[in-house]
Design brief:
Elements (H helix, E strand, L loop, with lengths): L8 H13 L8 H14 L4 H15 L4 H16 L4
Helix pairs in contact: 2-3, 2-4, 3-4
Length: 86
């Protein structure tokens, strides 16, 4: 089991992912992803956060995967979460 890491440790993990999958820094928008996860966790349910982040990435990728499409998709997921009523 891994220990909880401080937020800045995500920079090292993001760098490892970028290297492994040949991604540019703008391809891994940490704060955008964390905001999406926070919005979903607080408005829907904690387990919905990683699932929603995956779906956002899938949708953005199918739309072309540009940084702008990622931002638009994340905003749409956050907006849906904000209006969610269980």
């Amino acid at each position: 089991m891994s220990e909880h890491l401080p937020p800045e440790a995500l920079d090292r993990w993001a760098e490892a992912l970028r290297e492994r999958f040949d991604l540019a820094p703008e391809d891994v928008p940490i704060s955008l992803i964390l905001t999406l996860a926070k919005d979903v966790a607080n408005s829907v349910a904690r387990p919905a956060a990683p699932f929603s982040a995956f779906v956002a990435g899938l949708v953005a990728g199918r739309a072309g995967g540009t940084p702008e499409q990622v931002r638009e998709t994340a905003a749409a997921v956050s907006e849906l979460a904000g209006t969610w009523e269980a």
